[in-house]
Structure formats: structure tokens, C-alpha cells
Write a structure and sequence with these properties.
Layout lengths: L2 H24 L2 H8 L3 H7 L3 H24 L5 H13 L12 H9 L4 H27 L9 H22 L2 H16 L3
Helix pairs in contact: 1-2, 1-4, 1-6, 4-5, 4-7, 5-7, 5-9, 6-7, 7-8, 8-9
């Protein structure tokens, strides 16, 4: 890794919690310089602008979540067990090295919906990628006769994602963690009922 690549990685690592907790609009240049200990010129010597930092940070935070999911799924064999990993990870995210501030997809989707087209596009692609992974798991489960043949994989996938992200939002907004637990139990039942 070149010195420039190391500096870019350092800026991303140090500003990732800022963007994921304060959002794009809430993260100022002074926040970024304080977090990195670098000057504005040093940051903009490595990134064209704040947008470029935010996009790189989103990718970084998303990769952290995907690495957790992948690592946990690697411990299981069946499609059902792998689907249940989503419930375990999002239910118990404090026990994992999750990005500070929670789910970067939810955080970015809510903020960037009407204000930042490039971030919105990244969040939409992340949701679509997640949906496709769930669909593939369900289809493998159907092939292995773990799940019923008539399961609508896409509908199940988008329902799971909506429920998981909605549960996170409800718990975060209200401070009532049992809301997240209740919704996660519902998603777990939904997965169990695919048989």
C-alpha cells in the first residue's frame, strides 16, 4: 500500500464513525480534521471533496457489516441457519464489531433519500445486494428441500429486510429495545415457517 493509499484509508477509518452517527450534513470539515488530526488541505489532497469521503466511508462501513455476516454464516451449513444469522447479528449487533452509529444502510438511506443522490444510489445498491443474497439462500434452501417449493424468495427477502431495518429504526427512535426483539422474533418465525 502506497503512502497515499495509507492516508486515504486512515481518513476513511477515522471519519467513518462521524458520517455514520452525524450523517453527511451533520459532519463538518472541522469534525473531520479533529477526528484525523489532519489539515483540511491534507484531507482534500487525498479526496476531491466531502462527497468523495462520504461515499468511501459508506463503502467502508458496509464492508464491515458484510464481513460480520459472511464470517458468521461461514459457521453454518444450511440455508435456514445462514438466514437466521441476519437475525442474530442485527439483534445482538453490540456483540459484533459493527460500525459506530449502527446500520450504515439505514442511516444513509434515511438521510440521503432526498438530499444526496450518490449516497442514495449506494444505499439502494446495498439493499438490492442484500436482497439478492437472501433470495439466493432461499433458492438454495428450496433446492435442498429445506424450504417449501412455492416460497416467493423475493417477497420473503424484501419483507425480511424491511422488518430488520424497521426494527432497528423503531428501537433507535423510541429507545425501546424490546421493539427490535419483538420484530426480530417475528422474522425468525417467518424463516422457520419457510419449511
Amino acid at each position: 500500500m502506497t503512502k497515499a493509499e495509507q492516508t486515504r484509508a486512515f481518513i476513511i477509518e477515522k471519519t467513518a464513525p462521524l458520517f455514520n452517527t452525524k450523517g453527511y450534513e451533520g459532519t463538518s470539515m472541522s469534525d473531520m480534521t479533529a477526528a484525523t488530526g489532519l489539515t483540511k488541505g491534507s484531507i482534500y489532497g487525498n479526496f476531491a471533496n466531502k462527497d468523495e469521503v462520504a461515499l468511501a466511508v459508506f463503502d467502508h462501513n458496509l464492508q464491515k457489516v458484510e464481513n460480520i455476516i459472511r464470517s458468521e454464516m461461514a459457521q453454518y451449513e444450511t440455508a435456514k441457519e445462514k438466514l437466521l444469522v441476519y437475525i442474530d447479528v442485527y439483534e445482538n449487533f453490540l456483540h459484533y464489531p459493527f460500525p459506530e452509529g449502527g446500520c450504515p444502510i439505514l442511516n444513509t438511506a434515511v438521510e440521503a433519500d432526498d438530499t444526496h443522490p450518490a449516497l442514495k444510489k449506494k444505499a439502494a445498491a446495498a439493499i438490492n445486494g442484500w436482497k439478492n443474497k437472501i433470495v439466493q439462500l432461499i433458492e438454495k434452501g428450496v433446492e435442498a428441500k429445506e424450504f417449501c417449493k412455492g416460497v416467493d424468495a423475493e417477497q420473503t427477502a424484501i419483507t425480511m429486510i424491511a422488518a430488520i431495518e424497521g426494527a432497528i429504526m423503531l428501537a433507535k427512535l423510541t429507545g425501546k429495545l424490546h421493539y427490535r426483539s419483538a420484530v426480530m422474533q417475528h422474522v425468525k418465525n417467518m424463516i422457520n415457517n419457510l419449511e
